[in-house]
Design goal:
The chain has 43 helices and 47 strands. The protein is α+β, with helices and mostly antiparallel strands and about 1400 residues long. Strands 27-47-46-45-28-40-44-43-41-42 form a ten-stranded mixed beta sheet, sandwiched between helices. A nine-stranded antiparallel beta sheet has the order 30-29-39-38-37-36-35-34-33. A six-stranded antiparallel beta sheet has the order 18-17-19-25-20-23, with no helix packed on it.
Length: about 1400
């Protein structure tokens, strides 16, 4: 990069000639541009500002003129080869003659070009022969004077060959000359050369094309834009207004009139034109031309600047201008890439359009911030404002307009089809409305006709979610089409142009590695999503009244399809006939297969697939474990309700494919940090202008500084850390489908738990019954543990009031139902003419085993909290109705006179003991009164569940898992508030919360329940409800610091508090949310999310919605690829939650430290650049490559290998790069780095050997910039920076509270020690092969021999300084090594003891972060 300095000595001559050309020029524009070039391309000098080079020794004596050891003399050219020295005299075989081109030939043609000719110099007028090229004459120049370098070297070299008066170069030497070519002279620059004509033509064509097309586009589009307000834009308000006013009815069928509401967006039509297509092609050619012209000028630089008549400065100045245009061109392409496809198309009305451009407001980013500050808010404001100005505040997507077979126009946006309605002139998505109740859907048994299917297929498309995953090449292209890489590749042109291509190749490799890592991680995730999303199979469909085998892609809402055992459900559907068992673990996280029942035509319940109707709904993507027809030879059928992305699975896939952007505060603050680094590069530019005097060298120096201050590894650093953590979680059987959520897990403040199967064991243990005796006053009998001792009526209820079935000799159904049925010891018959048939056990000889038939069943519904069955007891020939459900629900529906007076006390006490309490109600039916079995079959659920009497209680023990308590304690120790959200009773929830330590020890628990009579929530003491039955909860909360208070609420109380807008007041004091419905759980989680980062875990089922809603959801599911939440685990333990937070915190801390390491990399580069320019030195090319390729890349990877701490700390890692602690670390280490290099130079300047052997840029060939490390200044700088590069990774390896100790990161410790050993060897060893490869303690071979060193056996490029070596004295080497190692230890101690020690404590008190006030 210092090559231009060599031209500074001849540059004034060029300036004079160029001024003369401008004076003669008649073109005013040429004069102006020329004088601008003259102003920019001023003379540059590289000389230290604050110290005189080789002026005086340490004693104040004038330094003697040095000896230039082993000065390489130029090649010798002679008129007669006999003049050559004997050892350099060429000889040829017999019969051949030595020719002027330096070869032996039989004859020498006159057309041969002499090897002594110089490019751009006058032709040789006489024959001149080169002496032998294999002979390299080296001389020692005693009393070397850099100001008289040319004449002095020529004199000494002439004396060495025993000749006299040999000129440096002449077109007609008398006897001999030295081959030192003069500056090429190809004539005067006129700016009319071919290269300038080509450049003016090319860039002029670019300007004409862009301006001309923009004007034409504006003229053509103006009428369309002026009238566009007449064509309604697509947004939510238009949907509502349209659906009220006219609707979209393509077939006069009300089923087709429902419009799916979408987020507000604008849709614009575009069409191709011949001129636009030609312009696009020309634009593409011009884009390729940008690269081609950069290649051309770079090639010309290496080819002697022939296109610019040999003037390097003009070539370089032209390159600078072209580089700016190149960067702006490709930066604009990157920034506006989403709008570019339609730039060369003409906007038009929808009915004329061939493409659409969809614009949607940029989704709101969720900033996971520890607080707000003025600087960050101002940066965000500027970012929003700048995006709005240039139109980047919307997400732009282009899509082709396709035609259906019937000529309807549509386009696909985010996997959803939008169909054009000519009447409203709108594109809109459609959802087929089949019915709103169970009865309406159950009546749709005939399927679709071909005509209906075609119409619906036109509107909603195929039942297939197409997920595009690009191949590796396309993915890499997309990765590189970002501003960061455009910036990096633009800077790389500087490396390749300015004879710095070796380092350019190395940095290109680093960028490719970084991009490849990101692409591989992303493609792996996308392929996993594609595998989950795309599905096709063969299935039987009822079409036109006939069954036929078709592809699942042909399914449409309203179709009837056959449910086949072992298949995957292809769509969302409602079971019409038969009984089905579905494995929903991969979709909802439900741990056990779920039994599904057909819809009833007499059931007018609103169809809600995720709540009341879940037991009749099949979900796309679930496995059909069993399908049993209800009639012999019949089929199990289902009605298609939703297809494609409208399904529950499709919605999940869409959320994964098109997520709302989540941005941590450090993602935002890294922008400020990069701006700071860019400001540092401006400081470098100013230093270059000040130290060197400006010119192209300073400009190139600044560009290099920018490129190396901002590491190309920054984009990959975060992805690497997340990928490593995902791998560690996978080893713990915790699977992740959304990598950014890993860092979010590190900031979790609130953790919500389901109870049953999560905190407690999955299977409830049957704990007996407690029957009600209906005498004059109903009373509870004593608790009976064995079912054989319970009344027969209760036994029948236990055996029949459930929905258990058998699959492969295994009970399938609700775990509570299974446990209850097992306890009855009755047998479920495989075949039955009824809904089910059960037979009692033969416990005693002679006992009757008459079967009991289940003739009607209404399955359990969460919203009703009950189920009911009607059974025929063949022993007594009676019909009994049993209703089972939550004891509160049974009390509500039972006849009041059948309820024992102590019902509430008994059930509450049982719940307090941790019992899961259900209740039975019963009534007996007289079939003759209801019209026999046929008449009874028409009964509704409401008829069956009325006029019932309380029969008794069923008890289950809810045992806590062995490791729940210790893991809850671990979470609380980690400053994470734990909360229970359960469908169980409040008292059972409180009991479990106390058992597992979720509730504070010795805390008073107040239970809030809604009282219908008072119309408000009544708070009572759980332990003394009679004594404290209606208390003021606010008074207790005011005194909670003295007397700990925990709250618990029922589902009804939660809803009342929500309706009264009081829930937020008590939210973080409520420990147990009981009797929560699935929707209630979602609402509860969302309320917690308003207060802080919230995690939710459960075993699926009714937790599904809450798991999706939470910031961090972890489903305890056996399915590895569960998409119900970002995380899933087959380890059904709270330990998985602890592990997730532990790894998330470590990943966040590692990401922050990885960023800090790369930022410190930029700071060291800044320091390095400052001193390289001050002394006009640099590091060797080999060392640059080593640092950029091996050291930085491997250490960045190694930093990410830090393991998570074994226990959760009492705080979360910061996410702020500009926080006080981070700044203290960064600025402190930067200061120590500057102190280290300053002390190293101070030590160097105090040495006798150095005082008169300073690097003198005038004494060397500055065109050989890659040899500017061959001096003491460059060597000390390179050595110190090398140690700092290595040690900074170790500094950020300290675990603090979130990662394991320093030594546990074996990868980094190994690399750190290995690199330190290498660096120490380079510094301390005498000249050797390894050190010479990197220009450490080495020199020209002949010089090393003169000084008594053994040179390496391999070739060493001669050193480019008078001293001829940079071997440091042994004593100084040890002093420097001790200084460096000492400062490295100081940095380690500073980070460990000061930054992570008392400074952290001080800053935490001085600048406290606003934290969520909560009780853990």
């Amino acid at each position: 990069m210092y090559k231009e300095l060599n031209d500074s000595f001849t540059f004034l001559n060029f300036i004079k000639k160029l001024r003369f050309v401008l004076y003669l020029s008649k073109m005013k524009a040429l004069k102006i541009s020329g004088f601008i070039v003259l102003y920019v391309l001023s003379t540059t000098w590289a000389y230290p500002k604050f110290n005189a080079v080789n002026d005086k020794d340490l004693q104040g004596n004038k330094c003697p003129l040095p000896t230039y050891y082993s000065y390489p003399c130029p090649s010798l050219c002679v008129r007669d080869i006999s003049t050559c020295p004997a050892e350099a005299r060429p000889s040829c075989p017999s019969g051949q003659t030595f020719c002027v081109d330096g070869t032996c030939r039989e004859s020498c043609p006159a057309s041969l070009t002499s090897a002594c000719a110089c490019p751009g110099a006058p032709d040789l007028t006489v024959p001149v022969y080169p002496c032998s090229q294999s002979f390299q004459l080296s001389v020692n120049i005693i009393g070397f004077n850099a100001d008289n370098k040319t004449e002095q070297s020529a004199e000494v070299c002439t004396h060495a060959v025993n000749l006299t008066n040999i000129p440096t170069w002449s077109p007609s030497p008398e006897t001999a000359m030295w081959l030192e070519c003069p500056t090429p002279d190809y004539g005067q620059i006129t700016f009319k050369e071919d290269v300038f004509i080509a450049l003016f033509t090319y860039y002029g064509s670019c300007l004409v094309l862009l301006v001309g097309w923009s004007l034409l586009k504006y003229i053509r589009e103006k009428p369309v834009k002026d009238n566009f307000n007449k064509i309604k834009e697509l947004h939510t308000e238009d949907y509502e207004q349209n659906s009220k006013e006219k609707g979209f009815d393509a077939s006069d069928d009300d089923d087709l009139s429902t419009i799916e509401e979408e987020d507000a967006m604008n849709v614009y039509g575009y069409k191709r034109t011949l001129i636009g297509t030609i312009a696009a092609i020309l634009f593409f050619i011009q884009t390729i031309g940008q690269i081609a012209y950069m290649v051309m000028i770079t090639y010309d630089y290496y080819n002697g600047n022939l296109m610019f008549r040999g003037f390097t400065v003009v070539n370089t100045g032209t390159f600078m201008g072209m580089w700016y245009i190149y960067f702006i061109w490709f930066a604009c392409l990157t920034i506006f890439k989403s709008r570019l496809p339609n730039f060369f198309r003409i906007r038009c009305a929808y009915d004329q359009g061939q493409y659409v451009q969809v614009e949607r407001k940029e989704p709101n980013q969720i900033f996971l911030d520890d607080g707000s500050d003025v600087v960050m808010d101002f940066v965000r404001y500027l970012e929003r404002l700048s995006k709005k100005i240039v139109g980047l505040d919307v997400v732009v997507t282009s899509a082709p307009i396709n035609m259906t077979s019937k000529g309807k126009k549509y386009f696909i946006y985010q996997c959803t089809r939008y169909v054009y309605d000519p009447s409203s002139q709108l594109f809109r998505p459609h959802q087929i409305e089949l019915g709103s109740t169970h009865a309406e859907l159950a009546s749709l048994t005939n399927g679709l006709t071909t005509e209906e299917a075609e119409e619906r297929q036109e509107l909603i498309g195929s039942n297939f979610i197409a997920v595009y995953v690009p191949n590796f090449a396309v993915a890499m292209f997309r990765e590189f089409a970002s501003f960061f890489y455009i910036y990096q590749f633009s800077v790389l042109w500087l490396f390749y142009y300015y004879n710095y291509w070796q380092v350019g190749v190395a940095d290109t490799g680093v960028i490719l590695i970084s991009a490849t890592v990101k692409v591989v991680v992303r493609l792996t995730s996308e392929r996993r999503i594609k595998k989950m999303a795309e599905f096709t199979d063969k299935i039987n469909i009822l079409r036109d009244g006939r069954w036929s085998e078709k592809s699942t892609a042909e399914l449409l809402p309203g179709d009837i399809f056959e449910v086949i055992e072992g298949k995957t459900t292809p769509c969302d559907g409602a079971v019409l006939t038969g009984n089905v068992v579905a494995d929903e673990s991969s979709l909802t996280g439900e741990p056990l297969p779920i039994r599904k029942f057909p819809l009833r035509q007499d059931d007018n319940t609103i169809y809600e697939p995720m709540t009341t109707s879940k037991i009749s709904t099949l979900f796309a993507g679930t496995i059909l474990s069993q399908a049993q027809p209800t009639t012999p030879g019949g089929k199990v059928t289902a009605l298609v309700t939703k297809t494609g992305t409208a399904t529950d699975k499709g919605e999940l896939v869409k959320k994964i494919l098109f997520p709302t952007r989540v941005s941590f505060i450090f993602n935002e603050q890294i922008k400020i940090v990069i701006l700071i680094l860019l400001c540092c590069s401006m400081v470098c530019l100013a230093a270059g202008v000040w130290l060197v005097g400006g010119g192209t060298s300073a400009w190139f120096y600044s560009m290099y500084a920018i490129s190396q201050l901002v590491s190309p590894l920054l984009p990959a650093a975060l992805v690497i850390g997340q990928s490593v953590t995902a791998g560690r979680l996978r080893q713990k059987n915790i699977f992740c489908v959304d990598l950014p959520r890993i860092l979010m897990a590190g900031k979790v403040q609130l953790f919500c738990f389901d109870k049953t199967g999560t905190l407690t064991k999955e299977g409830l243990e049957f704990y007996g019954t407690q029957s009600v005796t209906n005498t004059d006053k109903p009373i509870f009998e004593s608790h009976i543990l064995e079912t054989e001792s319970t009344p027969r009526l209760m036994q029948i209820g236990l055996a029949t009031c459930h929905a258990v079935t058998v699959l492969n000799d295994q009970f399938i159904g609700n775990p509570v139902d299974i446990e209850m049925f097992r306890s009855s010891k009755w047998k479920l018959e495989e075949k039955s003419d009824y809904v089910d048939t059960v037979t009692p056990p033969m416990t005693k000889p002679g006992m009757s085993a008459e079967p009991v038939h289940i003739i009607k069943r209404f399955e359990f519904v969460h919203a009703r909290m009950s189920m009911s069955v009607a059974v025929l007891d063949t022993l007594e020939n009676k019909v009994h109705i049993f209703v089972k459900g939550a004891y509160e629900k049974i009390k509500d529906i039972s006849n009041p006179e059948s309820i024992p007076h102590d019902y509430d006390i008994i059930t509450a006490n049982l719940a307090k003991q941790g019992c899961y309490v259900l209740a039975f109600a019963h009534r007996e039916i007289d079939l003759e009164v209801v019209g026999g079995l046929e008449g009874f079959k028409d009964w509704t659920r409401e008829q069956m569940e009325e006029n019932v009497n309380c029969l008794g209680l069923i008890l289950f023990k809810n045992q806590l898992k062995e490791d729940t308590a210790e893991n809850i304690a671990e979470l609380k120790q980690g400053d994470t508030r734990t909360t229970m959200i359960t469908g169980d009773t409040a008292l059972t929830g409180v009991y479990i919360a106390r058992q597992c330590g979720m509730c504070l020890s010795n805390s008073k628990v107040l239970l809030g329940d809604y009282n219908k009579e008072t119309g408000r929530v009544i708070w009572s003491d759980v332990d003394e409800p009679e004594l404290f039955s209606d208390i003021n909860v606010d008074e207790y909360l005011l005194n909670k610091d003295h007397t700990p208070v925990e709250l618990a609420v029922t589902g009804k109380a939660f809803q009342w508090l929500t309706d009264q807008n009081l829930i937020r007041k008590y939210l973080l004091d409520i420990r147990v949310f009981a009797r929560m419905t699935p929707n209630g759980k979602v609402q509860c989680v969302q309320l917690h999310m308003e207060r802080g980062i919230t995690a939710m875990t459960g075993d699926g089922g009714n937790d599904c919605g809450a798991l999706r809603a939470a910031h961090v959801g972890i489903a305890m599911s056996d399915a590895e690829a569960s998409i119900v939440s970002p995380f899933s685990t087959s380890v059904r333990s709270v330990q998985s939650c602890v592990e997730l937070i532990r790894q998330g915190r470590a990943a966040l801390a590692t990401s922050i430290n990885g960023y800090k390491y790369l930022i410190l990399y930029g700071q060291i580069m800044f320091m390095l650049k400052f001193f390289t320019f001050y002394f006009s030195v640099t590091m060797s090319q080999e060392l640059w490559i080593l640092v950029d390729v091996l050291i930085t890349v491997l250490l960045t990877w190694a930093v990410s290998q830090s393991k998570a701490a074994t226990h959760l700390a009492d705080q979360r890692p910061t996410a702020r790069l500009l926080g006080p602690q981070t700044l203290a670390s960064g600025f402190g280490l930067a200061g120590l780095n500057w102190l280290t290099i300053s002390m190293a130079y101070k030590l160097l300047f105090a040495q006798d050997f150095y005082a008169c052997n300073m690097f003198d840029s005038k004494a060397v060939d500055m065109s050989k910039w890659w040899l500017l490390s061959d001096n003491y200044e460059g060597e000390v700088l390179a050595m110190v920076c090398l140690f700092l590069f290595i040690n900074n990774a170790a500094v950020f390896n300290f675990g603090y509270k979130f990662r394991q100790s320093f030594w546990k990161n074996y990868s980094l410790v190994f690399l750190w020690i290995l690199y330190l050993i290498f660096a120490s060897y380079w510094l301390l060893a005498d000249p050797n092969l390894f050190g010479c490869a990197f220009r450490f303690n080495c020199g020209t071979k002949e010089v090393l021999e003169q000084f008594g060193y053994t040179p390496p056996s391999t070739y060493v490029t001669p050193y480019n300084i008078p001293l001829g070596h940079n071997v440091l004295p042994k004593e100084f080497r040890w002093k420097l090594w001790g200084l460096i190692i000492g400062m490295l230890c100081v940095e380690l101690v500073y980070e460990k003891v000061i930054v992570l020690g008392f400074i952290h404590t001080f800053l935490a008190k001085k600048f406290p972060v606003t934290r969520l006030k909560k009780t853990v």
